[in-house]
Design goal:
Layout: E1 7-10, E2 13-16, H1 27-31, E3 34-42, E4 45-46, H2 49-62, H3 71-84, E5 92-99, E6 111-118, H4 126-131
Antiparallel strand pairs: 1-2, 1-6, 3-4, 3-5, 5-6
Amino acid sequence: MGEPLPICFLNDEFLPLRDARISPLDRGFLYSDGAYEVTPVYGGRPFRFAQHHARLTRSLKEIRMEDPLSPEAWRAVYRELIARNDAGSSDSYIYVQVTRGAEHGRITRPCRMCRARCLRLPPPGPPVARAGRKMDCPP
């Protein structure tokens, strides 16, 4: 599917993917207590960002979590991740994971992780580019 790009975003910090560390107490790791979304990026531009972000927000709401970042903040993270990985002229995808975080007592802080990979798929044809692709999952 492609090579992971070297820089990721983890809890408000851009760092080398090889240096990213998540607590073994993270509820996403222990209990799958989180949500994820994948956004294709064509020519350095996130494809249908608003729709992908809305689905992430809905998924988080279903598990009674608030989206930890605003759409504008997520968009800024995507832009910076694309720039830091020098992926502005290539096709890739951004994989976002948000978990409830590590539990310390009864207090958790969401864990936010974004990483990018090179995409080796052809760009969508005109009908898909205009309307998107229907998924079998409810909105």
